[in-house]
From TrEMBL:
Residues 5-62 form the HTH lysR-type domain. This is LysR family transcriptional regulator. Gene3D superfamilies: Periplasmic binding protein-like II, Winged helix-like DNA-binding domain superfamily/Winged helix DNA-binding domain. GO terms for cellular component: protein-DNA complex. It comes from Aestuariibaculum sediminum. Pfam families: HTH_1 (PF00126), LysR_substrate (PF03466). PANTHER family: HCA OPERON TRANSCRIPTIONAL ACTIVATOR HCAR, TRANSCRIPTIONAL DUAL REGULATOR HCAR-RELATED. Belongs to the LysR transcriptional regulatory family. GO terms for molecular function: DNA binding; DNA-binding transcription factor activity. Keywords: DNA-binding, Transcription, Transcription regulation.
């Protein structure tokens, strides 16, 4: 078996494997279609393995092709990270860390973490992206992000997690609402109100905990709006479209038109967790994890 395979062959193979279309892959790679076909044929000949079935203008991966796509997708991402890290070292940087997070993590957790980490590692480049839980999981699996901050009870196989914050919930009301911190006794007082909640797609497990709060209070909520952004919730509450329940860390005292009432007498709590891919080889990640743990 000949192994005269170069990095470009692997990238060409992945482009075709992802599109299952030679013309579209060639356009993506900015090369000619005949040239791409020749490179794939050279790769197959070099490996002595058939990677694609081509018939009736359809392209399908063989079993060997499916295996190679899965393994290369993971390992080329690691290789790209290694090469990028080497370039950063050449530029005088220790490395780069890509973080994903839900909005509440930016209130205290991430700023505090980065301030502490920067003291011992001042030459790190950071990329910060606010993402919902599902997008973070996808980003962690593909290693597009190195660490995420999510509100999930369970994570997929291959990912690791550690809780960083367990906190109560808060009721969110317009400032002029008849119920306020001085006369609030239980959520049952608000059973006829419309509620604005985080969308179940934000996190199904988080949504289940919130529904459990209502169940324990003896009623099913009238949900008028779902959203994935706290700012949208506050704007709707402010304009009397309903009331809401959010994690305590999302309190924003600078919004004078709404009031937050901590629900400290209920048993439910929400957990913010740091999540990462155990196969991620970014050397900066382990340093950050040691600080988190």
């Amino acid at each position: 078996m000949s192994y005269q395979i170069e990095l470009r062959h692997l990238k060409y193979f992945l482009a075709v494997a992802e599109t299952l279309h030679f013309r579209k892959a060639a356009e993506k790679l900015f090369i000619s279609q005949p040239g791409l076909s020749r490179q794939i044929k050279d790769m197959e000949d070099g490996l002595e393995v058939k990677l694609f079935d081509r018939h009736n203008r359809q392209v399908k991966l063989t079993s060997a092709g499916i295996y190679l796509k899965e393994e290369l997708s993971k390992n080329l991402k690691s290789l790209d990270g290694i090469l990028n890290h080497a370039k950063l070292l050449e530029d005088g940087k220790e490395g780069q860390l890509n973080l994903g997070y839900v909005g509440s993590a930016m209130q205290h957790i991430i700023p505090d973490l980065l301030l502490k980490f920067t003291k011992s590692h001042p030459n790190i480049l950071y990329s910060l992206k606010e993402m919902d839980n599902k997008k973070q999981i996808e980003g962690l699996m593909s290693q597009d992000i190195d660490i995420g901050f999510v509100r999930l009870e369970r994570v997929p196989k291959g990912l690791m997690s550690v809780p960083v914050l367990k906190e109560p919930f808060c009721l969110v009301l317009p400032k002029d609402h008849a119920i306020n911190s001085s006369n609030f006794k239980s959520l049952g007082q608000l059973q006829h109100e419309h509620f604005i909640l985080f969308d179940p797609e934000y996190s199904s497990s988080y949504y289940e905990v919130v529904m459990e709060i209502f169940h324990d209070s003896g009623f099913s909520p009238l949900v008028s709006h779902n959203t994935i952004h706290a700012d949208s919730i506050y704007k709707l509450v402010e304009n009397n479209f309903g009331i809401s329940i959010v994690p305590k860390s999302l309190q924003n005292p600078s919004i004078s038109s709404i009031e937050f009432i901590e629900l400290h007498n209920i048993k439910q709590r929400t957990v913010l967790s740091a999540v990462w891919n155990q196969n991620n080889r970014n050397p900066i990640l382990n340093h950050v994890l040691s600080l988190i743990k």
